[in-house]
Amino acid sequence: MSEVLFEADERTMDNLMRGPHVIVRTAASRFAKKEAAFNKEGFEKYGDLIDQYECDGFSIEVQDVAEGRLQEYFAPSLDGIKNKDAIGKIGISGSGAFAKDFDLDRFKRFGSVKAITTQDVPFGDALPDLFPQLEAWLNLDWKANKIKALNGKWPDLAISRSKAFPAPCRFSKELRSRGFS
Fold first, then answer.
1. Within 13 Å of residue 103, how many CA atoms lie on the same side as its CB?
2. CB atoms within 10 A of CB 27
3. Cα–Cα distance, 150 to 70 (Å, whole number)
4. DSSP state of 166
5. Residue 13: other Cβ atoms inside 10 A
6. What span, in angstroms and rounded, lies between the C-alpha atoms of 126 and 124?
7. Please, which pLDDT band fits residue 163 given cuts at 50, 70 and 90?
8. DSSP type of residue 94
């Protein structure tokens, strides 16, 4: 059972897709005890709540695709999070694309991340290098984020799920050593 610690919803009928929204709550996860969930605009306005509430997980939902077309790019301001080492879980979901000049290496500053959620915001082949300590990956869109071979990376990855295959896939050390992911 989670407890809501803070919530702000500034969406209206006029700005339903663009109004800031955030919810900070306790979590029942081994990777995060307090999580902040934002839409893109909510993260820009309320991202400081991650440190204020001592969250160890956060997620950002991006909705930059409308009518089948990318409307704008995504470039989250991650520098505002002071205690990056406290973050154990990150989620980037929804539909969109990182800005061409956005340096994905900014995610490397979150060295304690053990769980991620991805959807239709592609990271490319960078995921294993960005989150080397990963133990759990919830991938909601395998077309946008797929890894060809682990090649010894993510040795602690134990659970991976997708919407297409709702049952967890458990990777044995033997399969990982052969490059199967």
1. 6
2. 18
3. 30
4. -
5. 6
6. 5
7. low
8. E
DSSP one-letter string for 117-129: EEEES--GGGHHH
Query: In this structure, are residues 66 and 86 in contact, taking their beta carbons and an 8 Å threshold?
Result: no
Strands (E), 19-112: 21-26, 34-39, 57-63, 65-66, 69-70, 89-95
148's tokens: 């060809």
Cα–Cα distance between 9 and 88 in angstroms, integer? 25
Q: Encoding tokens for residue 80?
A: 């505002």
Distance (Å, whole) CA 72 – CA 64: 6
- What is the CB neighbour count within 10 angstroms for residue 171? 17
C-beta separation of 14 from 35 below 8 A = no
At position 126, the amino acid (one-letter code) is A
Share of the chain above pLDDT 90, in %: 57
Whole-angstrom distance, CA of residue 114 vs CA of residue 87:
9
pLDDT at 96: 92
Look at residues 28, 32, 38, 36 and name the one whose alpha carbon lies nearest to residue 2.
28
pTM of this structure: 0.84
Q: Evaluate if residue 3 carries a pLDDT over 70.
A: yes
**CA-only gyration radius of the chain, Å:** 16
Quick one: tokens of 40?
Answer: 């893109």
Contact between 135 and 156 under an 8 Å Cβ cutoff? The reply is yes
